[in-house]
Specification:
CATH architecture of the largest domain: 3-Layer(aba) Sandwich
Number of helices: 10
Radius of gyration: 19 Å
Structural class: alpha/beta
Mean pLDDT: 91
Distance between the termini: 42 Å
Shape: globular
Number of strands: 15
């Protein structure tokens, strides 16, 4: 368990009135970590906004990510969310590179950093803990696969550009929870070969894995979007989680212009329990099988005092949620 102390980089506990973009700092196991925060125009904590985290490419920074990868700021103003750009630490080779779980880990606690940022955004800005999203590019995308595998109880959906899962990530991803998956990759990407290599799995293997985890349809809907881009959507079924993959025929290792809007359109449909519209009819059915029963109660108890089993939308799992579950006990259409 990591110990987190929130230390704001400004003198005040809150940003100065009208300030929209600023750095904050959290201490994770004795290590200070920084992240850039962007609040939408006329921000009001009462809005209970979602948060979009973006993890920059290797040896880059939040500022470079905004300039050369994805600038969520105008989208945040329109669609009302908080944008957060975490900063990687300098590693032993002098690179601001993310650390991945697995056999090549250098010990930097990136998962603890991600959880610390979530806790900070909830505590400091009343962000909605059930609507935390992450995107990542290149090495930041590799880290985002770690978040999907190991923090599915904290992130509702992810968007990964120009990265496939490392072999060791895939091998360790045995207890992954359902999570919205959006993936964009060019067929000529040198960092993440489309058909895999000795370090990363193939796109086909990756798609099949997440379709299985999410309980999505085994048959994708294929759409040719033009410009060499084909979208493959595996629709959600009872578990209310889908998978979408964009294949960029001849695409290189870069961030395509359509990626920002495609990722936000996808992830914003999700809460921690799945596609929001899919869940509205029976929120106590946590595993999406159409019945509120002991399996759902087990999921609720596993998420106790966290957002994982939250039914009433207050951001934590407690006795109120148990009451709602018991009141809805049985088949979802029985009322």
């Amino acid at each position: 368990m990591f110990t987190v102390f929130i230390i704001l980089s400004c003198i005040l506990a809150k940003p100065a009135s009208g300030q929209q973009q600023f750095y904050e700092t959290v201490n994770v196991n004795g290590v200070n970590r920084q992240y850039l925060v962007y609040l939408p125009t006329d921000f009001d904590p009462a809005e209970n906004l979602p948060v979009m985290f973006h993890f920059h490419g290797g040896d880059e920074s939040p500022e470079v990510a905004i300039q050369s990868e994805v600038d969520y700021r105008s989208l945040a103003n329109v669609h009302r969310f908080i944008a957060v750009y975490p900063a990687a630490l300098l590693d032993g080779k002098g690179c601001t590179c993310w650390n991945n779980e697995g056999k090549y880990s250098n010990g930097i606690d990136e998962l603890g950093f991600a959880e610390a940022m979530i806790d900070s955004m909830v505590a400091g800005y009343n962000a909605d803990p059930s609507r935390m999203y992450a995107s990542g590019f290149s090495l930041g995308g590799s880290l985002t696969w770690d978040l999907a595998c190991f923090l599915g109880d904290r992130f509702a959906a992810v968007g990964v550009v120009a990265a496939n899962m490392w072999e060791w990530t895939y091998n360790d991803c045995t207890s992954a929870l359902p999570i919205g998956i959006c993936h964009i990759l060019g067929t000529n990407d040198f960092y993440a070969p489309y058909n895999g290599n000795q370090y990363s799995i193939s796109t086909a293997q990756q798609n099949a894995f997440w379709v299985s985890v999410n309980g999505a349809s085994n048959t994708p809907i294929e759409d040719n979007l033009g410009g060499g881009v084909t979208r493959f959507l595996w629709p959600a079924k009872e578990d209310c989680h889908s998978v979408v993959h964009y294949r960029r025929q001849g695409g290189e290792h870069d961030w395509p212009t359509f990626a920002r809007d495609a990722i936000w359109e996808f992830v914003s449909q999700y809460s921690l329990d799945g596609l929001i519209e899919c869940l509205e009819d029976c929120p106590a059915d946590l595993n999406g099988d159409g019945v509120v029963d002991g399996v759902d109660l087990g999921i609720l108890l596993a998420g106790w005092k966290r957002a994982g089993g939250d039914i009433d939308g207050d951001g934590t799992t407690n006795g109120v949620d148990i009451g709602l579950m018991l009141a809805a006990w049985g088949a979802c259409n029985s009322g």
